[in-house]
Amino acid sequence: MYDLDKIRADFPILSREVNGKPLTYLDNGASAQKPQVVIDAITKAYAEEYSNVHRGLHFLSNLATEKYEAVRGIIARFLNAGDENTIVLNSGTTEGINLVAYGWAMPRFEAGDEIVLSVMEHHANIVPWHFLRERQGVVLKWVDTEADGSLDPQKVIDAIGPKTKLVAVTQCSNVLGTVVDVKAITQGAHAKGVPVLVDGSQGAVHMPVNVQDIGCDFYAITGHKLYGPSGSGAIYIKPERMAEMRPFIGGGDMIKEVSKEGIIYNDPPMKFEAGTPGIVQTIGLGVALEYMMALGMDNIAKHEGCLRDYAMQRLTGLNWINVQGQAPGKAAIFSFTMEGAAHAHDISTILDKKGVAVRAGHHCAGPLMDHLGVSATCRASFGLYNTKEEVDTLVDALELAHELFA
Ligand SMILES: Cc1ncc(COP(=O)(O)O)c(C=O)c1O
Asked: Does the reported pTM lie above 0.85?
């Protein structure tokens, strides 16, 4: 049973007011709020269990190392990765994808080699590939979304040619909410001998993930969207790909020995984790993932599916709102524009006066904005604690904005 009142009570910030109104937090796509168990774990880690990890032989260092390293196993369980050594801990998806770009792709790709991307990728899954285009002459091949915002897996597979070296695709669009059949894409790409990177920043938040079933080579997550601390995250890397990778950032922890003559690297995955990591952030992420798994990812998906259906019905009922992206089975993420030329920033400012937090702008998805022919949208993105009443509050606030701008 999904006890929404109890779940909401777990998140202290949800009971605060904003501009004299109860907070309606619909900016989960940007970053999610944190349950008390995560806040407590962070406090405890600093107050009672803090030291640097992997280095000392003293009690606190061992304790912190134990807590930190346990998170690798939690993430492996959360992603159904099987072996926890497939998990590289980091600060989030941006770092994870850059590791793949610098550590795996850069030494292997040559001028004329291609990377296939969907047009709805987040900049974190675009800019590192543009670096390869600028520096090495790699070619980016873009696959458009359909009119309803869906991505046809076959079109992605068809875009793979003899020069394609990687497919990099999101599992869930942070703008349209479109859920992508990354398993079908992976099967098609692998049949052509091409590895697949999945950006799981949004996907892992909204649905159960099984990276072994998807079969992808890389799967990146970011902790702050998963109800955990910012500055935490991980990337799953298939052992075959990890064996091909060279380290990206050099420093302490990723080595076994350093001498004037050379270095001996640490074993993977630590070979790819240089310097003092986000110790407490990672510990907090572990607690957040345990929290989500205790609620049940299927239950979260089911609850958010009800919110999606209700929000879709209410928003499409407003004939002056244009909802971008209506793909079947999408996540509860709604980007929209308003007729009457009100800018997304103006709409979000009015909503804020009513305590409703949404995001306005390009959502770090420039190519998608170009494809849609808009410069900005408002985005309401729902999370595991949101309610149908909050959908109503959003619609009431939009009606007010429409009255003001119409
Ligand atoms: C789909 C997607 N990919 C990547 C990112 C980047 O995540 P981070 O900034 O946490 O590295 C985001 C964050 O908005 C996202 O929504």
From this structure: yes
